[in-house]
Amino acid sequence: MYFNIRLADDDTKKQCILVLMGATAEGRKELIAVSDGYRESKDSWLEVIRDLKRRGMTTIPKLAIGDGALGFWAAIREEWPGVAEQRCWVHKTANVLATLPKSRHGKAKAGLREIWHAPTRKQAEAALDAFLEDHEAKYAKAAECVRKDRQELLSFYRFPAEHWTHLRTTNPIESTFATIRHRHRRTKGNGSRAACLAMVFKLAQAAQRSWRYLNGRDQLVHVIRGVQFIDGEREVAA
Q1: Is this model's pTM higher than 0.90 or not?
Q2: Of 91, 112, 113, 183, whose CB is crowded by the most CB atoms within 10 A?
């Protein structure tokens, strides 16, 4: 994940802070990387991932969750090929609403919610088709915004149902960003690059103490072993 922040030695206004959160085999959410880079840059994200490997991260994640940043996903696919991808529904909802007149926001939000709150993937697919049908003719941009990430929006159905609330959005890290942005506004500047990174790291580290464990921690052993889940339920061999 990332958020924009102006560094003292940056005159492009494109530089930002890159932050990654992970979850351990015990279900504990942890801050695993804080770096600076460029928002859409594949190279910046590659450096973050490669640094994780240099620091001893040998386990490949089962699922990556993020918004539509092309650089992030390009880096994930290069360094961790085969990792499942889940697009954040909060970001996707905001992107869809940005293409619609305000008079349509209520109906669109309700339609999107029916998709990602559906109890099964089949029902989610039906709700998604209904959303596309409702918006295709008059609001093609909104329909395309959903269609282009159709598969990645529904990846969470392949994981335990207890985990879905954690997997469908990037809210945990976004709430941390809000704290950092608030401090950034109050300090009225970043100081040096080193001072900025130190501030972000310490604030994120402090926020980490309030991150709650994943629900259904007992299911993680099955996820790690590669057990298949269908609509959130563990597949049992016949």
Answers
A1: no
A2: 112
Determine the Cα–Cα distance for residues 57 and 208; give it in Å rounded to an integer.
19
The most confident of the ranges 12-21, 44-53, 150-159 is: 150-159
Give the side-chain half-sphere CA count within 13 A for 171. 10
**Cβ density class 40-67: b for 16+ within 10 Å, e for less:** ebbebbbbbbeebeeeeeeeebbbbbbb
The range of the structural domain enclosing residue 85 comes to 2-234
Measured CA to CA in angstroms, residue 40 lies from 45, 103, 141, 150, 220 at distances of 9, 32, 22, 21, 32
Does the pLDDT at position 31 exceed 50?
A: yes
Residues facing residue 21 across a β-bridge:
31
More confident residue, 70 or 144: 144
Taking a C-beta distance cutoff of 8 angstroms, is the pair 50, 41 a contact?
A: no
Give CA–CA dist 126/12, Å, rounded: 44
What is the CA 94 to chain-centroid distance, rounded? 14
**pLDDT tens figures, 151-175:** 999 999 999 999 999 999 987 777 6
CA atoms within 13 A on the CB side of 113: 6
Rounded-to-integer distance, Cα 67 and Cα 73, Å? 9
Task: Show Cβ contacts of residue 190 under 8 Å, excluding neighbours closer than 6 positions.
Answer: 5, 6, 7, 8, 184, 196, 199
Residue 1 gets which letter from DSSP?
Answer: -
